Amino acid sequence: MSVALLKIGVVLSTMAMITNWMSQTLPYLVGLNTTKLLVASGGKADRSTGVLPANPEESWQVYSSAQDTEGRCVCTVVAPQQTMCSRDARTKQLRQLLEKVQNMTQSIQVLDQRTQRDLQYVERMEVQLKGLETKFKQVEENHKQNIARQYKAIKAKMEELRPLIPVLEEYKADAKLVLQFKEEIQNLTSVLNELQEEIGTYDYEELQNRVSNLEERLRACMQKLACGKLTGISDPITIKTSGSRFGSWMTDPLAPEDDTRVWYMDGYHNNRFVREYMSIYDFMNSDNFTSHRLPHPWSGTGQVVYNGSIYFNKFQSHTIIKFDFKTSVISKSRQLDYAGYNNMYHYSWGGHSDIDLMVDEGGLWAIYATNQNAGNIVISKLNPNTLQIVKSWTTNHPKRSAGEAFMICGTLYVTNGYSGGTKVYYAFSTNSSTYEYIDIPFQNKYSHISMLDYNPKDRALYAWNNGHQVLYNVTLFHVIRSEQEQ
């Protein structure tokens, strides 16, 4: 705003100077307000005052003029033609005046350009100043807000630290108790050292030997208690309902105590995906699992997980495969010679259940039938590392007449069917190579059993009963003999 006023003032001042010079130099050429020069169409002029030549058309010309808002001539400058009166002193003054006017006009134009640039610069500066003012206000407001937040944070921290004061006071009391405990420990250590000196080295070693002997006897007794003869099976406990009518599920009996993973395999053929649940709780209450893809589809439901690997019968073959879950590779595979497969010697429910792999307290077993044994059950003890047969036993029980079977403590137990009323009625002991007929009730809650395996760690039977995953607890009869009887 100030620069614009300055520009107008300079222009007015310059015009005043020009008017002053003209009034002093050419009073006879200028008419102010009261003098009007009219040029008619015929070229004749009417003059009311001033000095003009007799024939202005021939010797004078209108050089410049200005008009007011009503169109009246305010200032008219006439000058002789350049060819006339070239030696006249007034003509020389007029030329000098014209040069000054031209110089002043150029100066005014330069000044006007500079004034325009300065005005634009000031306008930009005004915008920038307004932006800075806004930013300063924002910084000031943010600073106030930061101070308020910091104050609140400090206040909250003080509120958190305030309850620690009584805790520190209690800690001082606890420190005193710790010192008392240290003194008591030092006293007890001194007493024990004195007792050891009184007992002597020989007595201490004898006591240690007696403790070791007792530990070995207890361990042997526990091993005897681990195995026994099956005398009862509990009512079923339904863990989950999932999958198709046929399948298998299991846990690893050699897994560490903190490893409670559950392995789940749906179907009996043309499937190669094994689900791994992190715990029995996850298996029961969620669908969170890891899927493992086997290199070959399995056959039947006689798979078993043992010491971190899964053992299964390759589909449409008598090949047994050991697959390591950690490395996801086949660590061993071997053919089970003479074993029937592809529904040749299955259980009575079918399902390609020719070869049934099992685990008990004694290790890994394979249950199958051969032509050499007339389709009757053959029991083979397998080396879990090489899959070689350690020893085999032949039975007189037809494989196709068995509903399902499982091993406990080296004895094979066989059910009389897979649907309706079911019981365990046949047992073959590999320890004595003898068999007997028994009668142990077995509740078939969902009317179709396609998998039944014993887990020595849980001392329970795992069953797949018509799309239900079921557990049975077992009761074993133990006979403990003294060392003299053995």
Give a description of the structure.
- This protein is an alpha+beta fold and 486 residues long.
- It has two domains: 3-31 and 99-126 and 154-226, no CATH class; 229-477, Beta Barrel (Lipocalin), CATH 2.40.128.630.
- 35% of the residues lie in helices and 30% in strands.
- It has helices at residues 2-25, 56-59, 89-161, 164-199, 201-226, 280-285, and strands at 38-39, 45-46, 60-67, 73-80, 229-233, 237-241, 247-250, 262-266, 273-277, 290-293, 304-306, 309-313, 319-324, 329-335, 356-360, 363-369, 376-382, 389-398, 405-408, 411-415, 422-429, 434-442, 449-455, 460-465, 468-477.
- Strands 5, 6, 23, 24 and 25 form a five-stranded antiparallel β-sheet that branches. A four-stranded antiparallel β-sheet has the order 7-8-9-10. A four-stranded antiparallel β-sheet has the order 11-12-13-14, with no helix packed on it.
- Strand 24 (460-465) and strand 25 (468-477) form a beta hairpin.
- Helix 1 packs antiparallel against helix 3.
- Residues 1-12 and 25-59 have low confidence and may be disordered.
